[in-house]
Request: fold
Amino acid sequence: MVTSAKSMNDRPRFALRFISGKYQGGEFPLRMNREIIIGRSSDLDMVLVEDMVSRRHAKISSTEAEVYIQDMGSTNGTFVNGERIKVPVPIAAGDTVRFGNRLTYRVG
Reply:
């Protein structure tokens, strides 16, 4: 079977797996060549209804080869592997991402 380039790009290669907080056990697929905005605002791609999450908290961008996350000036920060990030940083399978103090995810 031949798969078009468009449908290949639409298939998720990674996912954020919720390992703590009220979303524990859930999963959010990360599609390649996309950008998702994460926060409390109901019009975003990934809505996290949590006090420690800002309205527009973080952005995940992906290319065909890499996935990056950046904080969007949130009050409580975005953390990758326990370090608060100030600039876009690459994330890969096995990394942990935390929004504020409570919600932790593993990239897989």
Summary: The two ends are 27 Å apart (CA to CA). The chain has one helix and eleven strands. The chain has a mean pLDDT of 84. The first strand starts at residue 12 and ends at 18.
